[in-house]
Amino acid sequence: MKFRLLAMLAVVASPAAAQNVPTPAPKPTLPLQVGNGPKRMPAAPREYTSAKDIAARIAAADAAVAAGRPYDGEPLLFQQGHRVTMEYRNVPQGGINVHLEDAEMFVIISGTGAMTVGGHLIDPVAQKDNPYEGPTISSRKVEGARTYEVGPGDMIMIPANTPHTVSRVDGKLVLYSMILPRPARPVTDIPLP
After folding, report:
1. Which residues contact 9 (CB under 8 A, 6 or more apart)?
2. In whole angstroms, what is the distance from residue 72 CA to residue 67 CA?
3. For 147, which of 26, 106, 129, 165 is 20 to 30 Å away at the CA?
4. Is position 154 within any domain?
């Protein structure tokens, strides 16, 4: 009996028996690689996108829209919370947005249309949180805004807390959108040379 008990203890204490004990998962490597954001978000930062890649994305968007599907492409560039996306539109935007904390810059890649900027929203509604933008409100109506005719190469800078929308699309409008988080300190505090 003593022999059986010692044999059982030897088996339990053996390295082979120890291999059956689950080990804790390793801690993640920092900095954390963001991969749990919106659909099709890259898991790793992206610092370069070629003109060929952008042309392929526009072709993919054309094909998706022709097949009755929305285009949902991942960011063109993504670094430390900053992102550049390609927006593809063949109809005007459904509402007017205000990013309360972030500025946004648009560069028109192709197509023509109009963007409406400024004024103040009528009956704004808070939008669902988005990990890549600060708080956003939107509305279907704006008063006192300006409208700009836009085409390839045009740029529009939208300050934080400013209403903006794509208000007209002439067939197709493809834009770069860059969210620009507010600096930690006001730019006016930085001395000029």
Report:
1. none
2. 14
3. 129
4. yes
| DSSP code, position 10 | H
144: containing domain: 51-186
Q: Pick from 83, 82, 65, 66: which is nearest to 74 by CA? A: 83
Q: What are phi and psi of 66, to 5 degrees?
A: -60, -30
List, for residues 26-79, the tens digit of each pLDDT value. Answer: 443 332 222 222 344 544 678 899 999 999 999 988 888 888 877 777 788 888
Q: Is residue 166 part of a domain?
A: yes
At residue 185, the pLDDT reads: 61
What DSSP designation does 46 have?
B
Give CA–CA dist 88/51, Å, rounded: 16
CATH number of the domain bearing residue 115: 2.60.120.10
Number of domains comprising the chain = 1
The span from the CA of 66 to the CA of 152, in Å, is 22
Q: Which of 143, 139, 145 is nearest to 115 (CA)?
A: 145
- CA distances to 47, 152, 163 from 57, in Å: 17, 17, 28
pLDDT at 79: 80
Asked if the structure places residue 164 within a domain, the reply is yes
**Residue 10, domain member (yes or no):** no
Calculate the alpha carbon distances from 112 to 62, 92, 115, 116, 166 in Å: 16, 11, 10, 13, 11
